[in-house]
User: What shape does this take?
Amino acid sequence: MNAAALALNVPSQRRGGLLSADPPRSRLLAAILLAVVLGLAVTPFVLSGSQPIGTAAKICVFILLAASYDLLLGYTGVVSFAHTMFFGIGGYGIAIALDRLGATWTSVGLGLLCAFALSAALALAIGLLSLRVRAIFFAMITLAVASAALVLASQLSTVTGGEDGLSFQLPPELRPAFRITGEPVFGLVLNGRIVAYYLIFFASLAGFLLLLRIVNSPFGRVLQAVRENEFRTEALGYRVVAYRTVASVIAALAATVAGALMALWLRYNGPDTTLSFAIMIDILLMVVIGGMGTMYGAVIGAFLFVLAQSYLQVLMGAAASALAGWPLLPEILHPDRWLLWLGILFVVSVYAFPGGVVGRLRQS
Amino acid sequence: MTATTAPGPTAPDLPRAKTDWVPLALVPGLVVLALPFFGDASSWVTLTLAGLAMGMMIFLMASGLTLVFGLMDVINFGHGVFISLGAYATLLVLGPLGGWARADSVPLNLALLALCIVAAMVVTAVVGAFFERVIVRPVYGSHLKQILVTMGGLIVTEQLIHALWGASPVPIPLPETLRGAFVIGDMAMERYRVVAVVIGLVVFGLMQLVLNRTRLGLLIRAGVENPEMVESLGYRIRRLFVAVFVAGSALAGLGGVMWAFYRQTLTAGMGMEVMVLVFTVIIIGGLGSVGGCFIGALLVALIANYVGFLAPKLALVSNILVMALVLVWRPQGLFPVARR
Assistant: This one.
């Protein structure tokens, strides 16, 4: 065995650790990631008001969601448009259970369990139906199934609340009125919202680390082999269809968790918050701009995207009013056109930086 | 000397390819089988005709996509935006000639529709050529990148439509004489749907004619089977690719006009909304098959209509069920295209 092959084997010899022997491999990237995680960890203590903590919770949820999508898109090389469907199933699982069975932790568990079962069954059925022919079928079939799910959710209003969605009560420990301690800690009253935030933060962190572990396991290596060369992998004796299907089930379950967390934070779930096609496009943008097949790209992508969603529009509004006299420029710089610029960034990323931001940082 | 000088051992004709009758029988079979479920014949006829018209419109929008896939192995997720662009291009005609739509004259109304179609096809053809050059050409051969990049193109173009024509929905009037319905006894048939059926049949006929009876069509079909061989015989397959992509975009524009007048409102997302149906149809038909796409479109539209009448709740998922059943029966769709 020559030196290069030995060098390739190194990571597999020392598996384990929190990062599953897959470190960021770039100082700058490591620093950014650390800053993001620490920032998210201390947000409730540093920034007051409900908007920053809401944004931070959204970032946590979307990191988990984008990471699970990266498992499919970046590691397995499969494009799914049904990821929001599983996100929505998680949300509706929690919402329906808490709405019908009362605001207890048992309902949370039951709702999550039912959502898991439904997501796994659907992911398995879609995978077996479409992945055995051609991977490209999967993209189209998932699109069709996801749109049917959206229609179902907005039409079956007796179960899902229809277009209005469902608002529900949380278990007492997560309500704003709940107090852990009487006195404020570091100037912060530890109420139920804070508990909910840290529940989301740690659940997302654990989910992310678990996904990182999965993609760095022997199973994850096979997924990457499927992505690189389907025929060779099959020839080596791995059932490509089975691996792809299992990957899509795992991704679906992780997305279900993310959906459940989103619903727990918002105390509401509806078609627009978890199921819409716009969110699917958001996830796609996050993963591709952050960097496909890196996992850390999901963190960067989700962080940048949610921030851009909240703050880029302000910048663009300023630019548009500064250019008011020009033809067309104010229209394309209008705050509502922020997706135009992210779309261009997306296309450029696919061509010029297939590794996204993370790939770029690792090169330099 | 007698006629014996004719070439001696005549080469036997190649055996004709067997026609696959089962999928062809699906649509007539479905129509006939549906009859007993309806109490009266008139609602059956009305629904069948309406379904056929709907199917024609879906076919118009889907045909370009399946043709492009069949020839170039390129899957264009941005196809929907050409439908929207075609729809918005009608505004270029309706702006100056809006009066023609209000005129109570059949020739004037039809001329307006024809002008809209021409304008839409020109616009989408030009944008299609640009799209092929800038967005699609660098990613030939990689499906994953095609899906991603064409989605990106879709996002950008949709946003540009918003920037150019505004973000709010635009109402457009259906020309005066195309409103209302022909009523024969108890049966009703919307006039506009009749026009849609006629245009759909003409386009399908033309496509079949071009593909099966002309030299260009021969090259396209040969390119579907084996592009390297066509190239090595001295034909520039690249040019053929571009021409088909442009034609496919123009067909989407045509479909967009028909769809726009049917809905009578324009939104930038209208193309993407209908794309779900379009994908279902081309999966059912077999990716790349124009004939399969035609049958798939009629099948989906007819079943949606029948189910919507007989069991409205089920209609929400009828498309998915049809698709699942077809895929269980024929995993590659009704007419699988040979090479893939």
